[in-house]
Write a structure and sequence with these properties.
This protein is an alpha/beta fold. Helices cover about 45% and strands about 20% of the residues. The protein has one domain (about 1-95): Glycogen Phosphorylase B (Rossmann fold). The protein is globular.
């Protein structure tokens, strides 16, 4: 079974995903993980031997800011990468944690 993990940001999202990933590896599942570059989720995925797909992501600021323009650009880049990843890996399950 192919499982795509999308979890990141904080340990509260990453470490439950790590626990599930370890059990899925024991069951012989094929895993991929998507998340932000140079992040806790990237470190943990490589530690577990799970291929990692880096997504350029950043949150939007609540008040108007020019940085929201770059966040919007990253959103569309990430959207394209997610589509490519889903088509290439073709997961049976998407396991997502976070907000």
């Amino acid at each position: 079974m192919r499982v795509l993990i999308a979890a990141g940001g904080t340990g509260g999202h990453v470490f439950p995903a790590v626990a599930v990933a370890e059990k899925l590896i024991e069951q012989g599942c094929e895993l991929n993980w998507v998340g932000r570059p140079q992040s806790l989720e990237e470190h943990e995925s490589w530690r577990l031997g799970i291929p990692f797909v880096s997504m350029p992501l950043r949150g939007f600021k609540r008040k108007w800011s020019l940085s929201n323009l770059s966040a919007l650009t990253m959103f569309f880049q990430g959207r394209r990468l997610v589509k490519e990843t889903l088509e290439a890996f073709c997961p049976h399950i998407l396991f997502a944690l976070g907000s």
